[in-house]
Amino acid sequence: MEIVLNVTSIVLTLLTLAPHLPSSHWLVRMWEFPRLQITALMLATLCGYLAYTLVAELSSVSLLLACTLVMSFIYQCMWIAPYTPLYKKEVKQIPRENAHSTLSILSSNVYMPNDDFDKLISHVQDTSPDFLVTLESNEKWENRLKPLENKYPYCKACPLDNLYGMHVYSKHKLTSATLHFLVENDVPSIQIKTTIEGKQITLWFVHPKPPSPTENIYAKPRDIELHIVGKAVNEECGPVIVAGDLNDVAWSPTTRHFKKISGLKDPRIGRGFFNTFHAHYPLVKWPLDHVFHSDHFELVQITRLGDIGSDHYPLFTQLALKSS
C-alpha cells in the first residue's frame, strides 16, 4: 500500500512539473489539460496516506513524498480555482430584463462526420442567437443548415473537409467579413464587423489545431495564432468578442497570455468550468470552447447546451453592451 502511494505521488508530481519543460511538444503540453483530473487523483492519494497512518507509521520517504504532493495539490488548485464559484467573478452579470443592447453567440464544434443536424438546429431555434458559428463544418453541414438562412441571411462560409471548416451565420448585416489563414494555410479564422444599435462590434471566430499526435506535433502554431489574434484585438478601440474552439483549456499559460495581451475578459471566471469536451467520456471533461469579450460588455447568460452528437457540447453566451 505504501509503495503504491509513493509511486502515485511521484507520477502525479512529475505530471505537475511536465508542462514547465522548455518544449511545445504535445507530450509535454498535453498535461496542461487534465489539471482537474490530476488534482482529484492527488486528493485521493492524500486520503490514502491519511488512511494508512491509521494502521501504520509512514516512513520518512513517504512523509517527504506526501508533503511534496500537498504542495503539488495546492499548485494545481491555483490554476483551476478561478473557474470555480469560490473565485471572484471577472464579469458582472445582469438580469435579462435589465439588458437592453444584447448580443448572443451559439458556438458549436459540430464534429464533421456527425449527422445529427436537427439537434443543432433545435438548439438554434430554442436559443435564437444573434450569431451561430459552426466549427468542423463542411459542405454537407452547410447544405443541411440552409433552413436557418431565412432567419440568418448574412453568412461567411469556409467549408472544408479537413475538420477545420467554419461557418458564421448572423441576424445582423455584416459591415465586413474577412477570412484569414493566420498561421496554417488549411486552418481558417473569420473576423467580422457589424453594427448593433449604432455601435460597431468586432468578432473573431477561431479554431486552431491542437497539439496532438494526429494534428500538430507541437503547440507552437496554435500559440502563435492566439498571439496574433490577441495583438489584433488589443488594437481595437470598440467592443470586441473572440469565440470558438481554441483547442486549449481556459487555465493554460497560452490562454492566460492571450487574455493578457488582448485585454479581454472571461465570463467563466468565478462561475464554473463549462466543460465542452468530451461530450461522451465522463472522466475527460475540459473547457475547450471559449468566449472572451472586451470591457464594453456585461454577462446576461452563459450556458453549455445539450448533446448534438458531436464530441463537443455547444456553448451559448448572451452579453449586453454597457449603457455607458
Structure described in brief:
By secondary structure, the protein is of the alpha+beta class.
Question: Could you please describe the fold and organization of this structure?
Answer:
The chain is of the alpha+beta class and 324 residues long. The protein is 31% helix and 22% strand. It has eight helices and eleven strands. The strands form two sheets. The protein has a six-stranded mixed beta sheet with strand order 3-4-2-1-11-10, with helices on one face. Strands 5-6-7-8-9 form a five-stranded mixed beta sheet, with no helix packed on it. α1 (2-17) runs antiparallel to α3, α3 (35-53) packs antiparallel against α4 and α7 runs parallel beside α8 (253-262). The protein starts with a helix and ends with a strand. The relative contact order is 0.16. The model has no long low-confidence stretch (mean pLDDT 96).
